[in-house]
Amino acid sequence: MAQIGVKWRVLRSISMILWSFVLASMLASAERGLKLQESTDFKSEPSGSGYLSQLVNFLWQSGVSGYQHVWPDMKFNVSIVLGTIVGFFGAAFGSVGGVGGGGIFVPMLSLIIGFDAKSATAISKCMIMGAAASTVYYNLKLRHPTLDMPIIDYDLALLVQPMLMLGISIGVAFNVVFADWMVTVLLIILFVGTSTKAFFKGVETWKKETIMKKEAAKRSETTGNDQEGEEYKLLPGGPSNDTEKEIKDNSEKEVSIIENVCWKELGLLVFVWVAFLALQIAKNGTTTCSTVYWVLNLLQIPVSVGVTSYEAISLYKGTRVIASKGEDGSNLKAHQLILYCSCAVLAGIVGGLLGLGGGFILGPLFLELGVPPQVSSATATFAMTFSSSMSVVEYYLLKRFPVPYALYFVAVATVAAFIGQHVVRRLIIILGRASLIIFILAFTIFVSAISLGGVGITNMISKIENHDYMGFENLCKYDA
Q1: 150 CB contacts (<8 Å, ≥6 apart)?
Q2: Residue 143, helix vs strand vs coil
Q3: What does the alpha-carbon distance between residue 393 and residue 399 come to, in Å, rounded to a whole number?
Q4: Which pTM value belongs to this model?
Q5: Domain containing 449: what range?
Q6: Does a structural domain hold residue 36?
Q7: Confidence check: pLDDT of 47 > 90
Q8: Where would you find the membrane-spanning parts of this chain (predicted)?
Q9: Where does residue 449 rank: exposed (0-12), middle (13-18), buried (19+ CB within 10 A)?
Q10: What letter does residue 113 receive in the DSSP assignment?
């Protein structure tokens, strides 16, 4: 119960931050008329009543935008080479940790290649999509490290993916509306917290693995049977000591993709993706902020909530289970399911807003659920494949990125993710430590917090010095 209380307090704190941005946006919109009326004699306002006007003037100016569209020419030079190297390692580490690598892609695209922050966010989503698709293809042939099931937990994905998609749509809209400094503040708070949590989870898992390896070594000395497989037992909640050899065989076993796909769950996930795609395409043919535009936006809610509710009710009644957790994956409580779905929405909002993979939140969340690191990474990446591809469609319809650049970096991320998965999987089997995935996850999130936070603070200082507009953008007047 104490752990549940802590999770709720963390979620409540993050939600308050998000709602503060939303309420500020609503306040700015409501005060637009007041601002226009008072703008001509703003300087003559008395100091008492002028504070509110100054705040509104800072957050909202009708017809004014702080967004500058910057797309560098695509040509072979030092920037492209350095960006390719950074993007390669970012995709390799990000795919292994199940976070996508967007926290490395965005600073690389901004600082090295030269894109503006919001265009970098859009291309980052393209790279995440390529890395996620490559990783999912690799994982579709693998089995769970301790149980007889695919390494991707389809029921867990079905619970969070529709809400992740809904969050993505909200996040993409926020990306247009929010100023860069607002994104920077949210990012630093969120990433420092999640990276710290993931690191301590990695330390805990490392200690458990060390105990298991010592026990395996003692049994080996007692029986005189020096089996290499006994060192790879592994994970919290793993099976009994009699199955180490089976674990070794299972971790190295590859099966056909057909055997590893749960078709019913995959069909529902594809249905959600197609429904969202159809709504986005239809919305693109309407006038922004018209009645039809908002109706099509709101139709995403029944699609996502309906599918997630079906899975959540099944999990609550026990007719379906999160099999990757073993015996602990059945009979989940209502407040747990609500918490997980809320975190999925938050992950989507953060992903769409910052150009990151939702795995930055889903990865630590799955680990807290007790899901093995390999399964956590694989399932988070699987869910991100749907959400990131939808983000790419939305950003493309908004004309937020140049297609040639996007295609090039998608190819880089795709190759890097495949290589990263293969190398780390070999290391886990050799060392018998799945906690490597958790440490890679924590490291990637922390580096992302430093790099994205640093870029955001630098841009914010530059805008302050130049007296640039730093308030909300007008979604209804957005023009790429």
Answers
A1: 140, 142, 143, 144, 260, 261, 262
A2: strand
A3: 10
A4: 0.67
A5: 88-219+231-477
A6: no
A7: no
A8: 80-110, 122-140, 164-192, 337-366, 378-398, 405-424, 436-457
A9: buried
A10: I
The domain total for the chain is 1
What is d(CA 64, CA 43) in angstroms, rounded to the nearest whole number? 19
Single-letter code of the amino acid located at 52: L
In tens, the pLDDT along 361-410 reads 787 778 777 788 888 888 888 888 887 888 788 788 878 788 888 999 99
More confident residue, 54 or 180: 180
- What the block records as the tokens of 440 is 């890679």
* Contact by Cβ (8 Å): 110, 116: yes
Question: What angle do helix axes 403-431 and 117-139 make, rounded to 10 degrees?
Answer: 40
Distance of CA 262 to the CA centre of its chain: 23
pLDDT of residue 24: 44
Instruction: Compute CA distances 357 → 128, 252, 342, 390, whole Å.
Output: 7, 28, 16, 12
Dihedral sign for Cα atoms in the order 393, 397, 398, 399: positive
The DSSP call for residue 254 is B
Q: What's the CA angle centered on 231, arms 228 and 233, to 5 degrees?
A: 130
Phi, psi of 85 (to 5 degrees): -65, -50
Looking at the domain assignment, is residue 49 inside a domain?
no
Encoding tokens for residue 106? 């965005």
Q: Are 185 and 350 in contact (CB under 8 A)?
A: no
Amino acid identity for residue 183 in this structure:
V
Based on C-alpha coordinates, what's the Rg of the chain?
A: 24
When pLDDT is averaged across residues 50-54 and rounded to a whole number, the result is 63
Nearest to 378 by CA among 361, 365, 359: 359
Instruction: Indicate the residue type of 177.
Output: V
- The angle, 0 to 180 degrees and rounded to 10, between the axes of the packed helices 359-368 and 180-223 is 40
Residue indicated by tokens 């503060």: 20
Considering the domain boundaries, does residue 422 fall inside one? Answer: yes
Is residue 404 assigned to a domain? yes
Closest CA to 88 of 420, 445, 446, 412: 412
